[in-house]
Recover the amino acids of this structure.
């Protein structure tokens, strides 16, 4: 199983005297209408692959905010057209996989199973608050889209190639036996079929690595 890793930085700006989180990617601040886009086909990924997203607070030592210390509520995610304002989740699609004990970063898994738009809210809070309640949350709410859940074509191709190779090897062995009179013609096809099945199993095993 392959993994595509991405790191997003969170810059804490002072807006009207209040610390406000702003999302950055690849050194650039993302606009309020920009989405986090995931496309396994473009990224050369298989269906069984997944994205691992790291959200990290920039200049954390001088930051006034941190991620809330709650893996279930540090991220809310839903389908639709707006960011969530209450606890919600997309089981088996998005989840928080790791959370820094000091609140400097979190890591999220995106399985990208189907083509869909999603909206999520990352919840931060003031560093001085030990046990934050929802009233203390400072939200960061980007949107995103899973554009392509990946292609099984590469897997099927590897199965076919493995099957062809195994089938060819079996057929060659059958031909050798036939030339020595140890095999009848009808059995050659059977050997080829067996080789194809074995090749398919081999391809499946390698495709899951």
């Amino acid at each position: 199983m392959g993994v595509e890793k991405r790191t997003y930085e969170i810059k804490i700006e002072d807006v009207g005297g209040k610390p406000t989180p702003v999302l950055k990617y690849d050194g650039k601040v993302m606009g309020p209408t920009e989405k986090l886009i995931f496309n396994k086909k473009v990224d050369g990924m298989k269906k069984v692959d997944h994205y691992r997203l790291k959200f990290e607070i920039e200049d954390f030592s001088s930051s006034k905010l941190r991620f809330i210390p709650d893996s279930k509520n540090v991220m809310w995610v839903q389908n639709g057209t707006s960011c969530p304002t209450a606890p919600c989740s997309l089981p088996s699609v998005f989840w928080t996989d790791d959370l820094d004990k000091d609140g400097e970063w979190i890591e999220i898994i995106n399985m990208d199973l189907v083509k869909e738009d999603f909206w999520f809210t990352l919840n931060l809070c003031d560093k001085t608050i030990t046990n934050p309640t929802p009233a203390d949350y400072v939200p960061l709410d980007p949107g995103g889209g899973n554009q392509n859940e990946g292609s099984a074509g590469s897997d099927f191709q590897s199965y076919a190639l493995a099957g062809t190779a195994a089938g060819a090897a079996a057929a060659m062995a059958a031909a050798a036996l036939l030339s020595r009179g140890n095999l009848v013609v009808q059995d050659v096809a059977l050997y080829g079929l067996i080789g194809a099945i074995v090749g398919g199993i081999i391809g499946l095993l390698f495709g899951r690595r």
User: Anything to note?
Assistant: The radius of gyration is 25 Å. The helical segments are 153-179, 186-207. The first helix runs from residue 153 to 179. Residues 153-207 form one domain.
